[in-house]
């Protein structure tokens, strides 16, 4: 039963990453008519109401300390992470942001080591991290080894995965409260949207309903709202509840690989030798980070049984 549950967790995480790895296409199309903040607001607003339709029962927390977990998760995982990432794209290259953001599993592992008793750093994770990061850098550079650093943009890009790591640890704690996964995700979305409102007003938010006459805008917003937000945040949060924050976050390594594949298939972008080598290293690194700890634990179980 435990093995079946474990497999479910891995499948949920993989499914989520497959969707998240292709969202850049929808975002790129929407940026013609929408600002980054508007895209963020509309996708999570759609996501919130979909989750409300699917599961309308309220989540009842015992005290403010429990409620604070949801508040901070909404602030970090919905508002801050995506805003910081979008702002970083203004100041630095997209390839830099893609590479830097993909180190989220390392930040998650460090935070989990100190704040989650059952999730500690280990040698296989660090070896896998080093290989995966090397692959991600190759993908980001795409054969161009002239690195152009931008202090502001790159610093913001480093801040984004750190914020996501906080979100991952918070969701692990929330999963321990045994609330309904959809209800918990909906509560997180609510606080995320709440924290977004001041940013919208500062950016002179305009509803601009005429933009929704474009079928492309509607379908891409629905893809981001229904798929990447409502569905994927539920599947990701469930995976975190089953596998833990660290093991689930390892799947983030695969995002650049999926992005490259989607770019070649949909946008017909060229794949270079550096991209292929990077994809190989990233997949091997994620396999080592994910697989080795399981083998170690099985060995311990056999020893105890004998």
Structure commentary:
This protein has 306 residues and is mostly helical. The chain has one domain (2-305). 78% of the residues lie in helices and 0% in strands. It has helices at 2-20, 23-30, 36-54, 64-91, 94-101, 104-115, 123-141, 151-175, 181-202, 215-243, 245-249, 255-266, 273-305. Helix 7 runs antiparallel to helix 13 and helix 8 (151-175) crosses helix 10 (215-243). The chain starts with a helix and ends with a helix. The relative contact order is 0.20.
In the predicted model, the low-confidence regions spanning at least 5 consecutive residues are 294-306
Shape: globular
* Biggest sheet record: none
> What would the average pLDDT be, to the nearest integer?
81
* Structural Rg: 19 Å
Q: How much helix is in the residues?
A: over 70%
Number of strands: 0
User: How does the helix and strand content classify structurally?
Assistant: mainly alpha
**How many structural domains does the protein architecture include?**
1
What sequence of helices (H) and strands (E) makes up the elements?
HHHHHHHHHHHHH
User: What is the subunit organization of this protein?
Assistant: single chain
Relative strand content: under 5%
Terminal residue distance: 22 Å
- The number of distinct helices, counting runs of at least 4 residues, comes to 13
Keywords:
13 helices, mainly alpha, EmrE-like, transmembrane helix, disordered C terminus, single chain, 306 residues
Furnish the topology, listing elements before pairings.
Layout (H helix, E strand, L loop, with lengths): L1 H19 L2 H8 L5 H19 L9 H28 L2 H8 L2 H12 L7 H19 L9 H25 L5 H22 L12 H29 L1 H5 L5 H12 L6 H33 L1
């Amino acid at each position: 039963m435990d093995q079946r549950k474990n497999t479910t967790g891995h499948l949920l995480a993989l499914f989520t990453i497959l969707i998240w790895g292709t969202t850049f296409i929808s975002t790129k199309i929407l940026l013609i008519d929408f600002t980054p903040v508007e895209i963020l607001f509309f996708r999570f607003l759609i996501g919130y109401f979909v989750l409300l339709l699917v599961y309308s029962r309220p989540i009842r927390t015992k005290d403010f300390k429990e409620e604070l977990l949801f508040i901070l998760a909404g602030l970090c995982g919905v508002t801050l992470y995506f805003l910081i990432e979008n702002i970083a794209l203004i100041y630095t290259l997209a390839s830099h942001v893609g590479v830097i953001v993909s180190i989220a599993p390392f930040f998650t592992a460090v935070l989990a080591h100190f704040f989650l008793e059952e999730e500690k750093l280990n040698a296989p994770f660090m070896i896998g991290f080093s290989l995966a990061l090397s692959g991600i850098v190759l993908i980001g550079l795409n054969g161009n080894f002239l690195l152009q650093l931008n202090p502001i943009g790159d610093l913001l890009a480093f801040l984004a995965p750190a914020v996501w790591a906080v979100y991952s640890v918070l969701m692990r704690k929330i999963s321990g409260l045994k609330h309904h996964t959809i209800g918990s995700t909906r509560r997180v979305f609510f606080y995320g949207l709440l924290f977004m409102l001041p940013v919208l007003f500062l950016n002179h938010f305009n509803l601009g309903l005429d933009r929704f006459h474009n079928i492309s805008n509607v379908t891409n917003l629905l893809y981001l709202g229904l798929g990447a937000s409502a569905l994927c945040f539920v599947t990701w949060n469930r995976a975190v509840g089953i596998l833990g924050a660290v093991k689930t976050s390892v799947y983030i390594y695969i995002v650049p690989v999926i992005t490259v594949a989607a770019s070649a298939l949909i946008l017909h972008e060229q794949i270079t030798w550096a991209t292929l080598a990077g994809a190989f290293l990233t997949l091997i690194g994620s396999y080592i980070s994910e697989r080795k700890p399981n083998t170690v634990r099985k060995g311990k179980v056999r020893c105890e049984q004998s």
